[in-house]
Fold:
Amino acid sequence: MNRVILKSKRERSVLKHHPWIFSGAIASEPSGGVDPGETVEVVDSGGRALGYGAYSPQSQIRVRMLSFGSAAAPDDTAIEGRVAAAIGRRADYFADAYTNAIRLVNAESDALPGVVADYYSGWVVAQFTSAGAERRKSVIAAALMKFAPFCRGVAERADIDSRAKEGLATEPSFAVLAGEEPPELIEIAEGDVHFLVDVRKGHKTGFYLDQRDARRTVGALANGAEVLNCFAYTGGFGLHARAAGAAHITQVDISEDALALARRNADLAHLCGTAVDYVVADVFTYLRTCRDANRRFDLIVLDPPRFAAGKGQLMKAARGYKDVNLLAMKLLRPNGLLATFSCSGAMTPDLFDRVLAEAAEDAGRDFQVVTRTRQASDHPVALAFPDGLYLKGAILRAL
Ligand code: SAH
Structure:
């Protein structure tokens, strides 16, 4: 088997079971003759075995570990077992009637580097974001088909930046890997709130499952409130607020398609009475328009897209987060709530707190933290892989 030899003193993170080996930590690697995603043996500078990983010739993350220490390299049966185990760990979600949309496999944190699989009411949509994941795709798709409850089909979304970085094809953007072709839109439930998910053209695999808990938490605070839901996508937070008895909702997103689906999602609920406005706009511009018109809200949600793709963009991203939070903070009525999120992995929870504190200072208002949120627990973070935590949020009350 091909070998990757680490530089002296660079084995520490692997010994702690962190799964990534960057090209800069490698003293010697196979020169050609290794297929993308093939399993390689990883040893330290003294030749001691550290485990086995999947080789990504084009990526800065050159090896993603699949097993550590003296454990054998996982074969197809072991990979199938990891898929089954990951699904098994979600048994409580399947037993609970609250939702039928669940992340089944959360990549490195479920011991399947580069593999994401989301379940939407009987259909699975996966992403294979590394060469190692791509190489094991057919085994993983078959395992998802076999072990996901009541599974009718497994499909793949390939239109992701991380695939391009690994030298993997991003076209066709959607393909069926096993079972039947999913319908154009799949209806899912989160409690009483229903959504149509476009698994072909929607963001990520179609829906932001990671914000499930936050949507529930925010909804519970929305009774009677005038709500501004910024970066609304297909209506998520706004529809939960409406189900909880909000007085008025404004859904703002730059994507006309996303808001078109938000309207259809509102119709699914058969609720009447609560007025919903839809605004196709850039949130930064819209918040300034509200400021100039002296508009005020009881609850503002800020769930922007990722501002920083990596550490290099962190300072620019921090300014973006500060600006948008500052603008929103000024629009709150006394005792109003700001539910604010960051899904940039490079923005740590501590740094996000500092950004919020600076925004509050510039807004000239005091806030209390009512609660904090994280990505939902079907998006677990391996203790040895803190990089897996990317989504954090805070609910702040303006004093
Ligand atoms: N809160 C949503 C997910 C939001 S994802 C949910 O619970 O489902 C981020 C959204 O921000 C996307 O829908 C994207 O279209 C939108 N977006 C990105 N940049 C924007 C901008 N500058 N102004 C308004 N919307 C933007």
